[in-house]
Predict the 3D structure of the following.
Amino acid sequence: QAQLVQSGAEVKRPGASVKVSCKASGYILTSYFIHWVRQAPGQGLEWMGIINPDGGSTNYAQKLQGRLTMTRDTSTSTVYMELSRLRSEDTAVYYCTRDSGSGRSRFDPWGQGTLVTVSS
Amino acid sequence: QSAPTQPASVSGSPGQSITISCTGTSSDVGNYNLVSWYQQHPGKAPKLMIHEDTKRPSGVSNRFSGSKSGNTASLTISGLQAEDEADYYCCSFAGSSTWVFGGGTKVTVL
């Protein structure tokens, strides 16, 4: 059974960076793309970007380019999402999810979510 | 790139059918057979309900069905049950390795 387990909640100051991990189990990490999606409090889902764990290529939502970096460590089956120059609007629950359709918009399973709070 | 439009809320009585629309553009919803739908209960991660416009994953109730016409995709829930009360989001491939979520719809079972 494929599963994604994320790192714990974070509290950061404005201007700082945060790095969230997403550890895959039950399948071979390099077989499927991983997306990151965030959800601000009381708001909808926002697609952030995609990483191909097989090779590490990435693509990010235009509004986050320059601040967002996705990486992977195949030796530990872990994908990372790092967001820099944090501002209050980045306060959200961050999810990783596997594209089980190999780019065909089949996001399953999802991680449990990581709350990132940006506050001074 | 703007989010596909979903109604903010839809409601129905137990046993009824409801339909949630997701209106995008010819650059996303209307250009690819790659719309998926997600159910999200409060405090929980989203759950895949429909993918590739109309395909239902194993384990998802056959009360859920997807369709599409032009730039508008739809999710229909038949035989509405109390457990269906949740937020629902559409998601579409938008080209150039980007995806876009709809604004979300809150479903209330009366």
In short: Chain A has a mean pLDDT of 96. Chain A touches chain B through 23 residues (CB under 8 Å). The longest strand of chain A covers residues 18-25.
